[in-house]
Protein backbone atom coordinates (compact mmCIF):
# COMPACT_ATOMS: atom_id res chain seq x y z
CA UNK A 1 0.00 0.00 0.00
CA UNK A 2 1.45 3.36 -1.05
CA UNK A 3 -0.03 6.81 -0.35
CA UNK A 4 0.20 9.24 -3.28
CA UNK A 5 -0.45 12.79 -1.99
CA UNK A 6 -2.06 15.29 -4.38
CA UNK A 7 0.79 17.73 -3.77
CA UNK A 8 3.30 15.16 -5.09
CA UNK A 9 1.55 14.34 -8.39
CA UNK A 10 3.73 15.08 -11.43
CA UNK A 11 2.69 17.90 -13.80
CA UNK A 12 3.60 17.51 -17.47
CA UNK A 13 2.48 18.71 -20.94
CA UNK A 14 -0.02 16.72 -22.98
CA UNK A 15 1.45 14.50 -25.65
CA UNK A 16 -0.10 16.78 -28.32
CA UNK A 17 1.04 19.96 -26.50
CA UNK A 18 -2.53 21.22 -26.10
CA UNK A 19 -2.57 21.42 -22.32
CA UNK A 20 -1.24 20.04 -19.07
CA UNK A 21 -1.84 16.77 -17.27
CA UNK A 22 -1.24 15.71 -13.71
CA UNK A 23 0.26 12.21 -13.61
CA UNK A 24 -0.90 10.33 -10.52
CA UNK A 25 0.77 6.97 -11.13
CA UNK A 26 2.54 5.16 -13.96
CA UNK A 27 4.03 1.71 -14.46
CA UNK A 28 6.80 0.92 -14.75
CA UNK A 29 8.09 3.72 -12.50
CA UNK A 30 9.53 6.54 -14.57
CA UNK A 31 7.95 5.36 -17.83
CA UNK A 32 7.31 7.99 -20.49
CA UNK A 33 4.28 8.54 -22.70
CA UNK A 34 5.52 6.04 -25.31
CA UNK A 35 6.49 3.13 -23.05
CA UNK A 36 4.11 2.88 -20.06
CA UNK A 37 2.20 -0.32 -19.27
CA UNK A 38 -0.49 1.64 -17.42
CA UNK A 39 -1.04 5.26 -16.40
CA UNK A 40 -3.50 7.21 -14.23
CA UNK A 41 -3.74 10.98 -14.69
CA UNK A 42 -5.99 14.02 -14.45
CA UNK A 43 -6.20 16.80 -17.02
CA UNK A 44 -7.79 20.21 -17.19
CA UNK A 45 -9.42 20.81 -20.56
CA UNK A 46 -10.13 24.47 -21.30
CA UNK A 47 -10.79 24.41 -25.07
CA UNK A 48 -12.41 22.19 -27.69
CA UNK A 49 -10.00 20.09 -29.70
CA UNK A 50 -8.36 16.75 -30.51
CA UNK A 51 -7.18 14.19 -28.00
CA UNK A 52 -3.63 12.85 -28.04
CA UNK A 53 -3.39 9.53 -29.89
CA UNK A 54 -1.81 6.63 -28.00
CA UNK A 55 -1.22 3.60 -30.28
CA UNK A 56 -2.04 0.24 -28.66
CA UNK A 57 -3.64 1.83 -25.57
CA UNK A 58 -7.13 1.49 -24.08
CA UNK A 59 -8.41 4.40 -22.01
CA UNK A 60 -11.29 5.23 -19.70
CA UNK A 61 -12.35 8.83 -19.13
CA UNK A 62 -14.40 10.25 -16.24
CA UNK A 63 -15.42 13.86 -15.58
CA UNK A 64 -14.29 15.12 -12.18
CA UNK A 65 -15.20 18.83 -12.39
CA UNK A 66 -17.18 21.05 -14.75
CA UNK A 67 -20.20 20.54 -16.97
CA UNK A 68 -18.60 17.90 -19.17
CA UNK A 69 -17.92 17.42 -22.86
CA UNK A 70 -19.13 15.67 -25.96
CA UNK A 71 -16.62 13.17 -27.32
CA UNK A 72 -16.35 12.39 -31.01
CA UNK A 73 -14.62 9.00 -31.24
CA UNK A 74 -14.02 7.64 -34.74
CA UNK A 75 -16.43 4.83 -35.54
CA UNK A 76 -18.85 5.66 -32.69
CA UNK A 77 -21.83 7.90 -32.09
CA UNK A 78 -20.98 11.12 -30.20
CA UNK A 79 -20.87 10.54 -26.43
CA UNK A 80 -21.93 13.19 -23.91
CA UNK A 81 -19.79 12.75 -20.80
CA UNK A 82 -20.69 14.55 -17.54
CA UNK A 83 -19.98 14.13 -13.84
CA UNK A 84 -23.13 11.97 -13.65
CA UNK A 85 -22.00 9.68 -16.50
CA UNK A 86 -20.41 6.30 -15.97
CA UNK A 87 -16.69 6.23 -16.78
CA UNK A 88 -16.33 5.87 -20.56
CA UNK A 89 -13.91 3.26 -22.01
CA UNK A 90 -12.58 3.64 -25.56
CA UNK A 91 -9.51 2.96 -27.68
CA UNK A 92 -6.87 5.69 -27.21
CA UNK A 93 -5.63 5.11 -30.77
CA UNK A 94 -9.01 5.98 -32.29
CA UNK A 95 -8.97 9.60 -33.49
CA UNK A 96 -10.97 11.50 -30.87
CA UNK A 97 -11.93 15.11 -30.33
CA UNK A 98 -14.03 16.88 -27.71
CA UNK A 99 -16.37 19.84 -27.50
CA UNK A 100 -16.85 21.31 -24.03
CA UNK A 101 -20.47 21.60 -22.89
CA UNK A 102 -20.05 24.81 -20.85
CA UNK A 103 -16.52 25.79 -19.88
CA UNK A 104 -13.42 24.14 -18.46
CA UNK A 105 -13.50 20.58 -17.12
CA UNK A 106 -11.14 18.31 -15.22
CA UNK A 107 -11.08 14.64 -16.18
CA UNK A 108 -9.67 11.40 -14.83
CA UNK A 109 -7.84 9.39 -17.48
CA UNK A 110 -6.86 5.73 -17.02
CA UNK A 111 -4.82 4.02 -19.75
CA UNK A 112 -3.48 0.48 -20.15
CA UNK A 113 -1.39 -1.14 -22.87
CA UNK A 114 -3.71 -3.35 -24.92
CA UNK A 115 -2.81 -7.04 -24.91
CA UNK A 116 -0.78 -6.72 -21.69
CA UNK A 117 -3.16 -5.11 -19.17
CA UNK A 118 -6.86 -4.41 -18.71
CA UNK A 119 -8.55 -1.95 -16.41
CA UNK A 120 -11.91 -0.93 -15.01
CA UNK A 121 -13.03 2.28 -13.30
CA UNK A 122 -16.00 2.77 -10.98
CA UNK A 123 -17.28 5.25 -8.37
CA UNK A 124 -17.85 4.45 -4.71
CA UNK A 125 -19.72 6.73 -2.33
CA UNK A 126 -18.67 6.39 1.31
CA UNK A 127 -20.87 7.54 4.20
CA UNK A 128 -19.69 5.98 7.44
CA UNK A 129 -17.95 2.62 7.70
CA UNK A 130 -17.91 0.00 4.98
CA UNK A 131 -15.71 -2.31 2.95
CA UNK A 132 -14.53 -2.05 -0.64
CA UNK A 133 -13.46 -5.19 -2.50
CA UNK A 134 -10.72 -5.29 -5.11
CA UNK A 135 -9.59 -8.04 -7.46
CA UNK A 136 -6.00 -9.15 -7.70
CA UNK A 137 -3.50 -6.98 -9.53
CA UNK A 138 -3.02 -3.27 -8.89
CA UNK A 139 -5.68 -0.91 -7.60
CA UNK A 140 -5.65 2.88 -7.42
CA UNK A 141 -8.19 4.71 -5.25
CA UNK A 142 -8.66 8.46 -5.84
CA UNK A 143 -10.38 10.53 -3.16
CA UNK A 144 -12.45 12.82 -5.37
CA UNK A 145 -14.55 14.57 -2.71
CA UNK A 146 -14.53 14.54 1.08
CA UNK A 147 -12.14 12.70 3.38
CA UNK A 148 -11.73 9.00 3.87
CA UNK A 149 -9.59 6.45 5.70
CA UNK A 150 -8.73 3.20 3.98
CA UNK A 151 -7.31 0.58 6.31
CA UNK A 152 -6.33 3.45 8.64
CA UNK A 153 -4.60 5.59 5.96
CA UNK A 154 -6.18 9.06 5.64
CA UNK A 155 -6.87 10.51 2.19
CA UNK A 156 -7.95 14.08 1.44
CA UNK A 157 -9.25 15.42 -1.88
CA UNK A 158 -6.86 14.50 -4.70
CA UNK A 159 -4.91 11.95 -2.68
CA UNK A 160 -4.64 8.37 -3.96
CA UNK A 161 -3.85 5.00 -2.53
CA UNK A 162 -1.93 2.52 -4.68
CA UNK A 163 -2.65 -1.09 -3.67
CA UNK A 164 -0.88 -4.17 -4.96
CA UNK A 165 -2.96 -7.28 -4.36
CA UNK A 166 -2.01 -10.89 -4.91
CA UNK A 167 -5.62 -12.01 -4.64
CA UNK A 168 -9.08 -10.59 -4.03
CA UNK A 169 -9.01 -8.44 -0.90
CA UNK A 170 -11.42 -6.28 1.09
CA UNK A 171 -10.38 -2.95 2.59
CA UNK A 172 -12.01 -1.12 5.50
CA UNK A 173 -13.22 2.33 4.47
CA UNK A 174 -14.57 5.08 6.72
CA UNK A 175 -15.53 8.73 6.28
CA UNK A 176 -17.66 10.75 3.90
CA UNK A 177 -16.27 10.80 0.39
CA UNK A 178 -16.69 10.05 -3.26
CA UNK A 179 -13.97 7.74 -4.57
CA UNK A 180 -12.91 6.62 -7.99
CA UNK A 181 -11.65 3.04 -7.84
CA UNK A 182 -9.41 1.68 -10.58
CA UNK A 183 -8.50 -1.99 -11.02
CA UNK A 184 -5.55 -2.83 -13.29
CA UNK A 185 -4.82 -6.46 -14.16
CA UNK A 186 -2.11 -8.13 -16.21
CA UNK A 187 -3.42 -10.36 -18.97
UniProtKB/TrEMBL annotation:
Gene3D superfamilies: Jelly Rolls. This is HutD family protein. PANTHER family: PROTEIN VES. Coiled coil: none annotated.
Amino acid sequence: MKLLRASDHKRMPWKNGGGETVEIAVSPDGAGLADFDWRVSMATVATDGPFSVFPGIDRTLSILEGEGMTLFIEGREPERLTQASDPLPFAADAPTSATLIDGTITDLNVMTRRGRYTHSVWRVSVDGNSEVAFKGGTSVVLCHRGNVEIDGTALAVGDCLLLSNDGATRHLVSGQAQLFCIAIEAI
